[in-house]
Each structure stands twice: as C-alpha cells, then as structure tokens.
Structure to design on (230 residues):
C-alpha cells in the first residue's frame, strides 16, 4: 500500500510517527509486485554457484560445492539442473535434476543414479528466487521484508521466508533470500536447517532468458550404471 499525502507537513508527520513495520509492509508489497512483473518475462536462468553447508554442533564441519545451475520455465512447467564440479576443492562431479516432478542424482565416479518421487511435492520450492513471482512466494511463505542490500554492485531486496507447509519446516526453519527483483533471480540464499546446521548459496555470472541446451537437464547413463529408486 502506498501512503498518499497532499500536504508536506502530513508527509513529515507520517515519516516521524508511522511505525517501521507499516513501512516494511508497504515495501514488501512493492517488492512482491516487482517480482510479479519480472517473473512474467522470465523463461530461463543459468548461473555459477557456491553452496557452503555448515554444521556447528556436535562437531563443526563445512562442505563447499561449486558448479553451475540451470532453471527453465515453459508455461506452467518447470525444470532445474545443478552440475557440481568441485566438492571441498576436489574434482567430484555430480548432477542433480528435477524434471517432470522426478528428482535424480547422478554420481559419475561410482556410476550410480538415484531417482526419487518422494520430493516431487516440494518441486515448486526449487523455484525459490529463480523466476518465482511475488504471488508464488506469498502463497507458500510467510514473508518479512528486511530491507535493501547491495551484493556484487547489484541492489537486492532481502526477505526472510518461513514456509507455510509444516512438512517443509522440517527441512529448514527459515530461509533468507537476497533478490534482484528486476530479473526475478537470487544472488544469495541462506537456509537455517536447525540444530546448528545451515547452508549459504551464492550465485554469480547470472544469465537470464538465454537459451539452455536440452542436454543440461538430461543425465547420460551407460550399461554399467547402478539404478536406485527411493
């Protein structure tokens, strides 16, 4: 909601005496509207990433994965793929895909493909910060606006999200995202997984609405591949 004031003094009083939460609610509606506009023109994204998983209890540990991620929308359809190249500085290739509601993980080093339908109900949450509209976010999350922040010389809007679905809350109590609302993409995400566990995702070299080769969403197996279904 935008507070219109015809008199300068009324504007001044509004600034002085309006509660911060009221202004935050107003800003949140602006941010969600900007996402609606950008998402309407969103078709695809590719980006390099770094995923830092941290555990503080009972034994401190850190896991760093680097690679490239791909997101694509076609109508109401959505698919994604994450090609991991490095794990903790070592070449450990892995491919995650979510296509047609089916999740797959392929590990070339052991030539094993895991397919799971159990997470298909959470497929829409993978869109988080990549083409999701403001309406999409508001439908699935309780949202708190935390203000603007600049990352890599890009102005972002920082949002705190708490899932409305109790089943999702079992995986992470809250998520913080830094969104470039002009492109409907995330530059950073923080997942609080509870009990001392968290994950921070950084995205850079982001390309929006450029063609993505269909093979990026396909996993190539061979006669020796082990297939596991969950």
């Amino acid at each position: 909601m935008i507070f219109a004031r015809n008199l300068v003094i009324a504007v001044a009083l509004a600034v002085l005496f309006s509660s911060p939460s009221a202004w935050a609610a107003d800003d949140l509606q602006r941010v969600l509207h900007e996402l609606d506009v950008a998402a309407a023109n969103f078709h695809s994204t590719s980006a390099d990433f770094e995923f830092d998983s941290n555990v503080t209890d009972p034994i401190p540990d850190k896991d760093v994965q680097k690679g490239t991620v791909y997101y694509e929308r076609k109508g109401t359809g959505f698919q994604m793929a994450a090609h991991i190249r490095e794990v903790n500085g070592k070449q450990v290739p892995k491919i995650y895909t979510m296509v047609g509601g089916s999740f797959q993980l392929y590990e070339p080093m052991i030539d094993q493909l895991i397919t799971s339908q159990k997470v298909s109900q959470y497929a829409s949450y993978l869109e988080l910060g990549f083409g999701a509209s403001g309406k999409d976010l508001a439908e699935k999350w309780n949202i708190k606006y935390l203000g603007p922040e600049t990352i890599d010389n890009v102005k972002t809007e920082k949002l705190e999200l708490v899932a409305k679905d109790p089943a999702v809350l079992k995986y992470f109590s809250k998520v913080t995202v830094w969104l470039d609302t002009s492109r409907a993409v995330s530059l950073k995400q923080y997942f609080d997984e509870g009990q001392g566990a968290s994950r921070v995702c950084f995205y850079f070299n982001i390309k929006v609405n450029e063609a993505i080769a269909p093979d990026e969403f396909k996993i190539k197996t061979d006669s020796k591949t082990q297939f596991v279904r969950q």
About this structure: The CA atoms of residues 106 and 163 lie 28 Å apart.
